[in-house]
Amino acid sequence: MKLWVLRHGEAVPHGSKIDSERELTEHGRNEVLRSAAYLMGQPLTAIYASPYLRAQQSAQIVREALGFEPEIRTVEWLTPESDPDKVAEQLVAVSNVLLVSHNPLVGNLLSYLQHGAGHPSEKVSTAGLAELEHSELLIGSMKLNSLKHP
């Protein structure tokens, strides 16, 4: 089982809009496009994304860059403050999926899947892309194959 986790690209600053409505900057779009290149040829079966605008835009950029036909699956459990344990529950029956989300969830989830609870969060920049792998989803035992920053 492989799992890719992408933090959305750079978004307009806080304060200019409601957090969920913040959109990607031009720089953020370019960041996501560069990260999408790492997914070329990977066996993706689905793209799950937070309902927040910047995550939706990031997921769509990846979808278009890859020519990925299935629709993006918008899920509430990928918002910034979601619990990594709740996200892991959703991933039990899936494999080879891309999650598009936000910090602090992205960093917390990567740490949780690798080490279990109680470990420091991974540092993930905007449009950072992580690849995790294991024979099955086991909390604290997934291997981080790569963490790429555009």
Overview of this structure, please?
The protein has a single domain (2-148), classed as Phosphoglycerate mutase-like (Rossmann fold, 3-Layer(aba) Sandwich). The mean pLDDT is 95. By secondary structure, it is an alpha/beta fold. The protein has 4 helices and 6 strands; from the N terminus they run E-H-E-H-E-H-E-H-E-E. It has a 6-stranded mixed beta sheet with strand order 3-2-4-1-5-6, with helices on both faces. The chain is globular, with a radius of gyration of 14 Å. It comes from Pseudomonas atacamensis. This is Phosphohistidine phosphatase SixA. InterPro entries: His_Pase_superF_clade-1, His_PPase_superfam, SixA.
CATH fold field value? Rossmann fold
How many DSSP helices? 4
Low-confidence stretches: none
Estimate the strand proportion.
15-25%
Percentage of residues assigned to helices: 25-40%
- Rg to the nearest angstrom? 14 Å
| SSE succession | EHEHEHEHEE
**Sheet/helix structural class:** alpha/beta
- What is the residue-mean pLDDT, rounded to a whole number? 95
Name its key features.
alpha/beta; Rossmann fold; six-stranded mixed sheet; 4 helices; globular
Task: Kindly summarize this structure in a few lines.
With 150 residues, this protein is α/β, with parallel strands linked by helices. It has 4 helices and 6 strands, in the order βαβαβαβαββ. The chain has one domain: Phosphoglycerate mutase-like (Rossmann fold), CATH 3.40.50.1240.
